[in-house]
Amino acid sequence: MVLLGAAIGAVLAPLSGRLYDQLGPRIPIISGSCVALIGLLGFALAARHLTVLAILILYIFFMLGIGLSLGNIMTNGLHRLSQEQQADGNAIFNTVQQFAAAIGSSLGATIVAAGQAAVADRRLGTINGSQHALILLLIIVALEVLLVLAALRRSQKSQNA
């Protein structure tokens, strides 16, 4: 399943970049962020009843959203920097991305482990912990959508002024 998500990301990178070039940042970034949010909402709501097929479909949906938005968010952010600052900006983006992935993985594993420790049935504990981790991820992505909307609105106002 992870390979499929990586393949979707690899296919979407040039396509979403082309959308960014043709339509500007708003449509691919906002639509991608919302698609990822909807995929996570499906995961969080159905966590107790997920089948392998449901996981695959929701994961594809989530990765479609990530593929549409993530690279374009970075491109749009770097576009705001001067030419001299872009190498530093790219290094900061990549460092923060790696750091956030490490923290997110650790936090998710901790939440699942806490769910397992809270009940005697390890299966039920894993389900509970996974659902709590998915809810936290859903909240984080919802905040990301709000931040993206605010940043794009602000940059549009500064371009129109």
Please explain how this structure is put together.
With 161 residues, the chain is mainly alpha-helical. It has one domain: MFS general substrate transporter like domains (Growth Hormone, Chain: A, Up-down Bundle). The protein is 89% helix and 0% strand. It has helices at 2-23, 26-46, 52-79, 86-118, 122-160. The mean pLDDT is 91.
Short account of what is shown:
The protein has 161 residues and is an all-alpha fold. The chain has a single domain, classed as Up-down Bundle (Growth Hormone, Chain: A), CATH 1.20.1250.20. It contains five helices and no strands.
What keywords describe this structure?
elongated, mainly alpha, 161 residues, Growth Hormone, Chain: A, 5 helices
The CATH architecture would be Up-down Bundle
What is the CA-based Rg, rounded?
18 Å
Say which CATH homologous superfamily is assigned: MFS general substrate transporter like domains
Total beta-strand segments: 0
Multimeric state of these chains?
single chain
N-C termini distance: 46 Å
Largest sheet: none
Structural class: mainly alpha
H/E element sequence: HHHHH
Instruction: Give the number of helices.
Output: 5
Number of domains: 1
- Strand proportion, as a percent range, falls in under 5%
Percentage of residues in helical conformation: over 70%
Query: What is the arithmetic mean of pLDDT?
Result: 91
Unreliable stretches (pLDDT < 50, length at least 5) are none
Looking at the structure, the CATH topology is Growth Hormone, Chain: A
Q: How would the global form be characterised?
A: elongated
What's the SSE blueprint?
Blueprint: H1 2-23, H2 26-46, H3 52-79, H4 86-118, H5 122-160
